[in-house]
Protein: Aldehyde dehydrogenase
Amino acid sequence: MQQFKMFVDGKWFGQKLEQIDVINPATNKSIGTIPKGGMEEAKQATDAAHAALKEWAARTAEDRSNYLVKWHDLIKEERENIGKIMTAEQGKPLKEAIGEVDYANGFISWYAEEGKRIYGDIIPASHTNKRIFVQKQPVGVVAAITPWNFPAAMITRKVAPALAAGCTVVIKPATQTPLTAFKLVELAEKAGIPKGVINIVTGSSSQIGKAWSEDSRIRKLTFTGSTEVGKTLMKDAADTMKKISLELGGHAPFIVMEDANLDKAVAGVVASKFRNAGQTCVCTNRVYVHESIKEIFQEKLAKAVSKLHVGNGDEEGTDIGPLIDQNAIEKVEEQVKDAASKGGNVIFGGKRLEGLFVEPTIVTDATDDMLCMYEETFGPLVPITTFKNEEEVIDRSNNSPFGLAAYVFTENIGQAIQISEALEYGIVGLNDGAPSTPQAPFGGFKESGLGREGGYHGIEEFLETKYISLAF
Ligand SMILES: NC(=O)C1=CN([C@@H]2O[C@H](COP(=O)(O)OP(=O)(O)OC[C@H]3O[C@@H](n4cnc5c(N)ncnc54)[C@H](OP(=O)(O)O)[C@@H]3O)[C@@H](O)[C@H]2O)C=CC1
Ligand SMILES: O=C(O)CCCC(=O)O
Structure:
């Protein structure tokens, strides 16, 4: 059994600390152990990142870009190997895991270029003897706290723009999926990224989170995970007035208008709902189908879902792997039971299988008082409800504290634009069940978070704006 180590200031360490098992959710077997770090290790990481900051920030953008390109190329060479590590610790099907590695690597190559385009401005002054220059500077040391559902992409989506902007980073991956993160950091070291620029610690999330929140040397905290933890981090970060980005929970509505191409809509639900067994914050959580097409849509969706194969992610042909843990299974079970007790019809699936597997499930006749219609599911359950008109479906879609992703399927261009604009969501998939991509600004409205990741917007999160007023 491999004993993994943390990486701080260019050194791998931690084998003398208490160890935590990393469990394969498909087999319930330990696949390695990681050190249980805490306050002390979090502080060491901050010390290292702080010491490395000045030199890294002073480099040219092109120099930093070259390191990112090397890192990208090493990840590309090992994409299958990293995918296997991810499937073993997280459970997602291998083809999806390798797809995530490519997606994750897309952030590195994109920001390797975007770092070269951090432009300033010259603003006309009010006096003839003055000039005003605006420039962007790296915010400083960045703390990145990442979840288990995307063990690679949530790291690179934060670390690549931070490094490109001239920041150094300390990372805490989810305890359930640290091995992919260690592999990425190992390849960053191999790419020659200087010591202290990337540091990673594992262990007590509350201690590490507190140490970083309270440390005034950390100038930016970037987090993906639950809304509850995001709120705690935001409160804790207030005392040192850090910049903060939060990618939190979602509850995506999927709207199927009367004139939608139903085959495209069904493919869209399958893509957005069953990716990662339903465990993404942009997964469809509730489907609104126009009442006139309800029967045919449900029939087509049930047929498509019946073709999905549930199994261990490392087996060929698996579409849906295990859920991450027992709590996740119980949440889905509770939502199915609740829906059935309130008049929902389970027309497909509905049962838990052995281990951490659960059948893909379709519940029709869903009503707004069912748990699955307002509480994030994070599992392969699709509740379907009907609507009569555009105004109704927009109101019901927006009636949520979340505002991350929404999906609309229609062939009417004018209606498509009007609905997209009316939705209080940061991402709208218009006839598109898979809108995520490195060059677009991923992020949510309302309690789904703050800030954007990806695209040129994503690098702004790691920059401070300064103006220099010159008088002569
Ligand atoms: N937006 C998204 O992509 C995600 C949303 N979720 C939602 O959240 C629910 C719960 O998932 P869960 O894994 O518990 O999510 P969490 O928010 O608890 O975990 C996400 C990350 O935050 C860390 N963390 C947890 N508590 C603290 C803390 N007090 N201070 C600092 N860091 C902390 C975790 O560490 P550790 O692993 O060590 O606990 C992990 O690295 C899911 O069912 C889903 O609804 C979950 C994951 C991702
Ligand atoms: O927060 C998540 O669930 C991860 C982001 C998924 C995506 O990038 O599509």
Notes: The first helix runs from residue 39 to 58.
